[in-house]
Design brief:
There is one protein chain. By secondary structure, the protein is α+β, with helices and mostly antiparallel strands. Helix content is about 50%, strand content about 20%. It folds into two domains: about 20-75, Arc Repressor Mutant, subunit A, CATH 1.10.10; about 80-185, Beta Polymerase, domain 2 (2-Layer Sandwich). The termini are far apart. This is Polymerase beta nucleotidyltransferase domain-containing protein. InterPro entries: ArsR-like_HTH, NT_sf, Polbeta, WH-like_DNA-bd_sf, WH_DNA-bd_sf. It comes from Candidatus Hakubella thermalkaliphila. Pfam families: Polbeta.
Length: about 190
């Protein structure tokens, strides 16, 4: 079994109600449409519980319902800013254990790209920028983590990051617009 399948996300209690579990499942699988039965099988929630929660999620505007014949299909409403922020929280929860392995090396850790804006899909990687005086050691630590396959990791020394503004302004701007998730206390 691969490391990524064995990996358990921290703080599962944040998504403990049926409503939250179903929303998390749909947010984690934003590309598709799902039937009630598929949601039930994926979340191990009773049929009635899934039905009740999905109706509430649709009413709240977090999930879309599309009917085709007698079938109902549900998908997460990615245009809803609240859904995108929930996706960002879920992304942060996924990388939290990884952060603890590199914090002692880092000056700053920035989540950028689609994971920072909540527009990521299942195939998206997690873009992580680390400002550090020891990029090699940071990369070594990241590569041993179960999520390493999904991480697009960039580590730069502070002096190199400053020069990046002229060398690669598009990338520099993308990182600068990212979400600062950790900074060393001065």
């Amino acid at each position: 079994m691969s490391k990524i399948l064995e990996y358990q996300e921290p703080q599962q209690h944040l998504f403990s109600t049926n409503y939250q579990k179903i929303l998390k499942h749909l947010v984690d699988h934003p590309s598709g449409e799902h039937t009630e039965k598929e949601v039930q099988e994926a979340t191990s929630i009773s049929r009635a519980g899934v039905n009740f929660a999905l109706r509430a999620l649709v009413k709240d505007g977090l999930v879309r319902l599309q009917k085709r014949g007698k079938m109902s299909f549900y998908s997460v409403s990615l245009e809803n800013p609240l859904v995108r922020q929930i996706k960002v929280i879920i992304n942060l929860l996924k990388i939290e254990p990884l952060l603890s392995t590199i914090k002692d090396l880092a000056e700053r850790i920035i989540l950028f790209g689609s994971s920072a804006t909540g527009t990521n899909i299942e195939e998206s990687d997690i873009d992580l920028f680390v400002l550090t005086n020891n990029p090699r050691e940071a990369l070594k630590r990241i590569s041993g983590h179960p999520l390493a396959e999904r991480i697009q990791f960039v580590a730069k020394k502070p002096i190199d990051f400053v020069s990046l503004k002229k060398k690669d302004p598009v990338f520099y701007d993308e990182v600068s617009r990212g979400l600062l998730i950790w900074e060393k206390k001065k």
